[in-house]
Amino acid sequence: QVCYFPSPCVVSAQRQVTVQEGPLYRTEGSHITIWCNVSGFQGPSEQNFQWSIYLPSAPEREVQIVSTIDPSFPYAIYTQRVRTGKIYVERIQGNSALLHITELQARDAGEYECHTPNTDERYFGSYSAKMNLIVIPDSLQATATPQTLQKVEQDSLELTCDVATETSQHSHLSVTWYRQRAGEKPVEVISLSRDFVLHSSSEYAQRQTLGEVRLDKLGETTFRLTVYHLQTSDQGEFYCEAAEWIQDPDKSWYPMTLKRSEGTVVNVQPTDKEFSVRLETDRRLYTVGDPVEFRCILEAQNIPDRYFAVSWAFNSSLIASLGPNAVPVLNSEFAQRESRGQLKVSKESDSVFVLKIYHLRQEDSGKYNCRVTEREKTVTGEFIDKESKRPKNIPIIVLPLKSSISVEVTSNASTILEGENLHFSCSVRTADRAQGRFSVIWQLLDRRNRRSNIMWLDRDGTVQPGSSYWERSSFGGIQMEQVQPNSFTLGIFNSRKEDEGQYECHVTEWVRAVDGEWQIVGERRASTPVSITALETGFAVTAISRTPGVTYSESFDLQCIIKPHYPSWVPVSVTWRFQPVGTIEFHNLVTFTRDGGVQWGERSASFRTRTAIEKAESSNNVRLSISRASDTEAGKYQCVAELWRKNHNSTWTRLAERTSNLLEIRVLQPGNKSHLPLLQSFLPKSALNSTVCLGGRSVLEQERSRAGIVRDGIFHRWLDDVRLKLSQAQGNITVLETQRVELECVVLNRTSGASRLSVEWHVWKPNHPERETVARLSREATFHYGEQVAKNHWKGRLHLESPSLGVYRLIIQNTAVQDSGTYNCLVEEWLLSPSDVWYKRAEDSSGQTIVTVLRPDATLQVDTVVPNVTVPEKSPFQLDCNILSRSSQDSRFAVAWYALRTKAGGKKGNALEDEEIERKAMLSVGPDAIFGPEGNHWEGRLRFQRLSPVLYRLTVLQADPSDTGNYSCRVEEWLSNPQKEWYRLTEEESGPIGIQVLDTGSTLQSIICANDALFYFVFFYPFPIFGILIITILLVRFKSRNSSKNSEGKNGVPLLWIKEPHLNYSPTCLEPPVLSIHPGTID
User: Fold this and answer.
1) What's the pTM value of the predicted model, to 2 decimals?
2) N or C: which end of the chain has fewer CB within 10 A?
């Protein structure tokens, strides 16, 4: 691969994508999953997946289905199914995922592609994989005649089910008969598997063995179920279920479709009250810590209507007993274990009683049994034991804990080159099911037999690096992962020479004891050796050339050969050094950097345009090709190679440096005059554009008459009068803010077709006399922003393109008001001199274009027709601010409410007074939803609501008569400019809202009750005053009568007592007190 400055070179990386093998046959309406896995990748551990399909109708066109990274990835035909969850991707691990299609359709058939977006630093490997899916019709049928049968215990039962399919593919059928009762799960009676094997559930297994349950095939499609000696437990609904299986390319069988027939209800009447008991358990041999469950099964007629008691025994010692009320009673030892949750005695159903020990001990070995006693309930409510039965004892053996694991370690390679990645896998195999957890330690035994911990994973899943590997692990250089419950991996990235040695996986098996503590069962270890070759081993460099002597204008190549042959990922930098003739110092000519870039030396200007540097893709060999040789390229060349290693913390370490032999290149003058070197100089700003001097005068004489003249012994050559010319068309463009503007600069003519142009755009802003540079495109086609890019926020909004030769277009995206101005372009034409020096030949300016950027027109309108409102005192009233129209859908609003009050004012001596409107702020809400302070008069009585984007409401609570008056709301509309700065576009005020608060008025009672002093003056003080006055009058009268002669009353009866005045007082203050003096109290 050849790299020319400044073009970058492409480097490669590795990746592998695999997908489930096809073709897969699936039926319409079924749920399908397709797995996809990616390995050998770099970057984050969680990769993304994109699924596409190539339909048979258009096998070359990709139709995108679903993606884990881009919600807009699906095409329209799949968008709705993806949104509703009928198509989705389930992530299994970071590098593995499943495609789910829940309701398969016929149009889903085609070639599926799984693609993983690149996260690697370089490309190498596969990034997608494909498989075929074939959708076939669902033709499976399972039919049976629905009916209801009345049977008596010990009768026989025969049911038939027709199963048929029309699938053209090779498939197998499985047929299963089920019995189901209301509220219970279906129970498998008997089934014929796809491999033509008969099987029954535990409830019917023994009866099938005895031949009481049969499944026969009659003809091609009929399957008959026969149950002899019916039991009452057989009562329920019987139906058959058929499944059609197909074998996938990975040799696994998959159920394409499942169908269920209609059911037959079977009622079984009991014959007597005999009962039997059987005891069941899964197995007889256990290990400490295993759970065990004993099931005592009662078989009898009409169990719900009868009473049974059950007792459990261990080695003839009572464990627990359950009465008819199903409340367990345990003895002291087992009661403690039951309280700690280690044991449970329960009644699972009317006919099943369960003893469960969750964590077996070794002393639990022995014989277990249950006894069932039928009880009869007397009229007094007492129970009388009747018949009692028990099955045979079931002995179990509890073995002590013993580790049965074995460990195997594998690696991706036993010998690698320094810098390559190491991957180890530690697989743990168990002779039986997993009993507990594992803790794993990865260790390295180096050549000096020093053992160090690399990383370990404890039994809780916590990963921790060793002390000497902590830093590398923190940068991702060391990774450990538990990919499966019994599989552990170790990854060492960018290996070093010191990583060489014996890698050992140390596995410890843990189990939880009965008391909840973890204990070690056993330990196993396995190892594998790894040898690492140092990068600098045999590192050498040699410089060669096949053309040590060249003539002027010829080309020559220099080869820098590096040994050994390193992979492309090994970072090697190569520098060509040059010592010109007549000098003693070398200077760097060009460097092929370790990351694939090219760097030129400070004194290599004359080489750049005539030198090509090439690095072989399959090796690190670098070739330097120099064309149009001259005296400046003559001298000695030397190649210097540096071998680098990138550290885990992204720093670089130079491992070795090698210098090649010297190569001397001689540049000779040609013997023929016609091949003499060409020298050229230029006269600036002269009518004579160039002067050409040739070594042979005969050439000048031959060309003098038609090319120019000789002046002062130098031949002067005139060029054609072809000048640079730009279009001078004027323009005027007016756009709204955020729209785009396109400005064109058209080159009508140029001096030479081999020249290069640089284009510079300028602008004159309003009220700003100085010209500003907007952007510049250099002659090397490099884009540069102007010096005012930050001030004008142009960065990211300018785009320069050349749609055709001589046409340059400046595009301003997302324009702002400050972009307004007068624009034009300045074009410079550059030519290359024979000595490879660029000079400016001419320049010209285009016509001016006036660009005006306007803000949107203000169309804010607030409702000005608002009715007057009358509210009673203490009631709330609402002030609505309704925005009828807005200038932009992206605008925000600031809303403020004001109370309009009339204040009187005027000059002295005037009879009339001028009225002014005083605005009192009640509440304001800014465009950023920040509330201003409430007005003092309304503080605590305001409530703000935004009912819609254009309707705001202010509610005033507890209205007061002083609130009577006019109100209005003012709305400010704010917009965001392209720089995300908010500015106020306009404001509008609503019409006045008249609010009348009705005063409920003041009654005599309310006035008196509202004033404490007045209350006491009216209702309290008059009573003692009147009392004293009456007593005084009575005393005076009494004395006056004693002084009389007869001292008798008017009727001859002495007046010895006085009736007290009667007071009527209302404490509610609703009416004033009533003072009444009854007749006879005072004569």
Assistant:
1) 0.35
2) C
